[in-house]
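For anyone still unconvinced, we reproduce a single protein record, the chain in one-letter code, the fold tokenised, and leave readers to judge:
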Amino acid sequence: MQLGHQDISFDRKTFPITLVCDNIYFQRNIGSLFRISEAFGVEKIIFLGKNIPLNPRKINKTSRSTHLHIPYSVIGETKELIDYLLATNYEIIALEITNTSKPLQEIVIPTSKKIALIVGSEINGICNEILTISNQTVHINMFGENSSMNVVQATSIALYELINKE
């Protein structure tokens, strides 16, 4: 028998993970990123970019009100984000296919640092300035002809892998 929401009592837990969204603008993706972040115990979300459409009415359908439970901030400029990430001493992990990226399963999680998981825009991925400062660049192995997947699906896979390495 399928259980209803009122019948389920998962242990609530927050992991030392900040999700950093590099110029993600599609409102359905933004809402879904809130939802998956809440489900996987993400500490907070940082949105990079100008005029990020964080209209609660429009993202609520996909967020299922989780945007009310996940702390978030918006940083307008890439340099400001980079300065923040470096000053905060995050292990910066970029989820992007590059000529030096390694499979997600080979990710190394240092015990003494919080994690900043960087995911890129729906059109251009992660900008080069952020890739340059990343401690690790990882990709999800895929076996079809397509070389990319939706940012929310990829983030879900990466977060699952990260919290199971804890």
Summary: The chain has a mean pLDDT of 91.
